[in-house]
Write a structure and sequence with these properties.
The chain is of the alpha+beta class and 144 residues long. The chain has helices at residues 5-14, 18-30, 77-90, 95-100, 103-110, 118-139; strands at residues 53-62, 65-74. It has a two-stranded antiparallel sheet with strand order 1-2.
């Protein structure tokens, strides 16, 4: 994804109502790269989500430090869009930055928190926690 969280916040400011923002989130989800069915396993399934959600991260070393490549999918369109929003937030960051990043603050700037059901909010928090845990594991040296 080439969009940044600041771009997304600007887009949301241009949209007059939550229904338009909701549609925009769904379109972001539709634009996510397809996730191979072989990656939809128990290991990549995110618990705590009302819908089926899979997130797969792969750590790699970039010029600015350890980073995560992320793939995700859901059986619900809005949730797939929320995955895209989370990826937009985290993709520009190193793994160490992801660990300390205040995603809830960014969701507040988007107004997402106020317009999601409690189940969706819990699922969103579970997605963030999963990626943060993967990021933390990638920056720690393996235990002997």
């Amino acid at each position: 994804m080439t969009q940044t969280i600041e771009d997304l916040i600007s887009d949301f400011e241009l949209l007059d109502n939550w229904e338009d923002r909701y549609r925009h989130v769904i379109e972001l989800g539709r634009a996510l790269p397809a996730m191979d069915e072989a990656f939809k396993t128990a290991a990549t399934k995110v618990s705590g989500c009302a819908s089926q959600v899979w997130i797969r991260t792969t750590a790699f070393d970039g010029p600015l430090g350890r980073r995560l490549h992320m793939l995700g999918d859901s059986d619900a369109l809005i949730v797939k869009g929320l995955i895209a929003v989370v990826f937009i937030m985290f993709e520009p960051l190193t793994a160490a930055e992801i660990v300390s990043y205040d995603a809830l603050k960014q969701f507040g700037r988007l107004g997402l928190k106020d317009h999601l059901t409690p189940q969706r909010s819990n699922g969103l928090a579970s997605m963030v926690a999963r990626i943060k845990a993967d990021a933390a594991a990638s920056v720690r040296p393996p235990q002997a």
